[in-house]
Amino acid sequence: MALIQPEGGALVEFVGTVRNLNHGRTVTALEYETAGTLAEKEFAKIEAEARAAFSILRLSCVHRSGRVLPGEPTVWIGVTARHRDSAFAACRFAIDELKKRLPIWKKEFYSDHESNWINAP
After folding, report:
1. Which one, 86, 94, 103, 121, has the greatest CB density within 10 A?
2. Domain residues of the chain, as ranges?
């Protein structure tokens, strides 16, 4: 889906990356597991809610699954709108709702060879 539209005056993107430190522990990798089709359906609801609440033209999201190393991107959200305020607000809304509602599980791996599920449902 092309985000840039002739009627759009703003394109806002958010990229979430893996941190190498969390709660004082050195993180060496993350592993994401997703419920693919269910996640897509839930994100479609988030997109519909964003369209209803903000004046946006397009909203798109990509979330990785599998192993991801520190510094690598894990999630990307792009929003276009006629004006920047709507684009910024919708992008913030989308990432906040994604973090709360999408069936995505994250396991952190640490330098001491331990691992831990984070925010597991």
Report:
1. 94
2. 10-110
CA nearest 10: which of 75, 76, 54?
54
Question: Which DSSP string corresponds to 56-121?
Answer: EEEEEEEE--EEE-TTSEEEEEEEEESSHHHHHHHHHHHHHHHHHHS-EEEEEEETTS-EEEES--
Q: What is the pLDDT of residue 36?
A: 81
Give the pLDDT confidence score for residue 1 in this predicted structure.
59
The angle, 0 to 180 degrees and rounded to 10, between the axes of the packed helices 84-101 and 36-53 is 150
Instruction: Please state the rounded mean pLDDT for residues 3-25.
Output: 94
pLDDT tens-place string over residues 32-74: 998 888 888 999 999 999 999 999 999 999 999 999 999 999 9
Claim: this prediction has a pTM higher than 0.85: yes
CA 40 from centre of chain: 12
Amino acid at 7: E
Instruction: Return the number of other C-beta atoms located less than 10 Å from residue 102's C-beta.
Output: 20
